[in-house]
Design brief:
363 residues; 8-stranded antiparallel sheet; two-stranded antiparallel ribbon; 9 helices; 16 strands; 38% helix
Length: 363
């Protein structure tokens, strides 16, 4: 159904795609009948105007969910009964904009613990902010904001998404929109350190990663299906089933190597009869990814990919071997992604005991 209405504070809105999920009806003799309807909104976005917008500069703020990070700038945070300084803000740059990522004042240790322990599946944690010369630039910066959430998901291991967009002009709110970007996992079991972080060991690695990776992600996401590949890794990171972790990592590798081979001139018909080992060897040679071990590619196909895809099990491997394979496959996909994104800093490698590891270079 289509719904036109007014919020309690007087803001008009229109919904083109929604349906009633629940209905309550209250009635008694001598009183007007009232009903409450819970609506399921299927519009891509629910826009609630606050004040008339005008052509000209604007500040845009996105509220992000499940963004767990350490900033490179400290600010005063007021917790329950205490005040302390925390590293809650970082700045990065896309090809044309400055961006600020900051933890929400309402997000504290209790909320973080609830996320990583799985008590809460999704919570607002941070705000992403940029400015535009004119409000008409919103679609282009929206794409970059989405890119930041995907890169944060890759770097931290937590599934980061957007939920609210607020637009300000002359310091005053003019519009508030509610939407839902795809989310592929959660934050459960995610350590606060993540894979690429700002800390005493890696320095401001996360800030550097965002600065170096945003342009490449925006350029290659559609062609290489980077969002899908990162989504598979998010699911691998958060699932408790070891076989599922391995399957998600294999799907990530299959997707990424397939798209890379298409870019290198192979056709879909040619790739239909090409196995994962052959695709890995192709990108290893043509793209100078010398960190892809040939024997590893062969063993991955024979020991894991074929048994899992044909029987749903890996009968020849014990649990410690499965865990090692899951870590190795994840690490390989991660290396390929940060290589393609042009990151040249360090990261924490799960396949080598979470030791700081240099990002791969062409060899």
């Amino acid at each position: 159904m289509k719904v036109d209405g007014t919020t309690q504070d007087g803001r008009r809105f229109t919904l083109a795609k929604c349906a009633p999920s629940a209905l309550s009806f209250l009635w008694s003799v001598g009183t007007p009948a009232t009903s409450d309807v819970l609506l399921r909104v299927e519009d891509e976005e629910l826009l609630l105007p606050v004040a008339p917008s005008v052509p000209g500069p604007a500040e845009v703020r996105w509220v992000l969910t499940n963004a767990l990070f350490r900033g490179d700038t400290f600010s005063l945070h007021n917790g329950p009964g205490t005040s302390f300084r925390r590293a809650d803000t970082l700045s990065c740059q896309s090809s044309s904009k400055e961006w600020v990522l900051r933890l929400l004042p309402s997000f504290g240790d209790a909320e973080r613990v609830a996320l990583v322990n799985g008590v809460a599946k999704q919570l607002p944690t941070a705000e992403l902010v940029t400015s535009v010369a004119d409000i008409s630039e919103l679609p282009s910066v929206e794409n970059t904001a989405y890119a930041v959430t995907r890169l944060l998901s890759l770097a931290t291991g937590s599934s980061v998404a957007g939920g609210i967009r607020r637009i300000y002009q002359s310091g005053q709110p003019v519009a508030e929109s509610f939407f839902e970007w795809s989310i592929f996992g959660g934050a459960e079991s995610t350590s606060f350190s993540g894979f690429i972080v700002n800390d005493g060991v890696l320095g401001n690695a996360l800030t550097r990663f965002l600065n170096e990776a945003i342009p490449a992600f925006e350029r290659d996401d559609q062609d290489l299906r980077l969002s899908n590949v990162i989504g598979y890794l998010e699911q691998a990171r958060t699932t408790p089933v070891i076989e599922a972790k391995i399957v998600m990592c294999i799907l990530a590798l299959e997707t990424l190597t397939y798209r890379l081979c298409l870019r290198l001139g192979r056709t879909s018909d040619e790739l239909a009869s090409t196995n994962i080992q052959q695709k890995l060897n192709t990108v290893r040679g043509r793209l100078r990814m010398g960190f892809i071990d040939k024997r590893f590619a062969e063993e991955a196909r024979e020991s894991l990919r074929n048994p899992l895809m044909h029987s749903g099990a890996i009968p020849t491997l014990q649990m410690p071997e499965k865990v090692r394979w899951a870590d190795d496959l994840y690490a390989l996909t991660f290396r390929m992604l940060i290589f393609l994104l042009g990151y040249q800093g360090q990261w924490l490698d799960p396949s080598s005991g979470w030791l700081p590891t240099n990002a791969p270079s062409p060899t």
